[in-house]
Amino acid sequence: MSDxxxxxxxxxxxxxxxxxxxxxxxxxxxxxxxxxxxxxGIKQLERIYKFKNFKQAWAFxxxxxxxxxxxxxxPAITLExxxxxxxxxxxxVKGLHKNDFICAAKxxxxxxxxxx
Length: 116
Known about the structure:
Elements: H1 21-30, E1 35-39, E2 42-50, H2 54-71, E3 76-80, E4 83-88, H3 98-114
Antiparallel strand pairs: 1-2, 2-4, 3-4
Helix pairs in contact: 2-3
């Protein structure tokens, strides 16, 4: 796992720079389980996590929600039976910012911690 999970999100205002294509490639190497999807012209990071049951998926969702509040950066979270889909993107810049990769790495860390 990269060191991204050790970083803190920075305040991201309208007009903040999105990641460049080069940064996207580099940051994607640090978050290899995440896919970049474009929805309505907006790039987003997405990953689907699988669980043994709904209760574990729900507990994971709660932890990701706490992360979002702690970082003041909020993803789309879809909770389903035995799986959770998380999408990170920066609403203010309508695309991907380094914050999204930081939160993706922290989300992965939450998932790993729940597997023990």
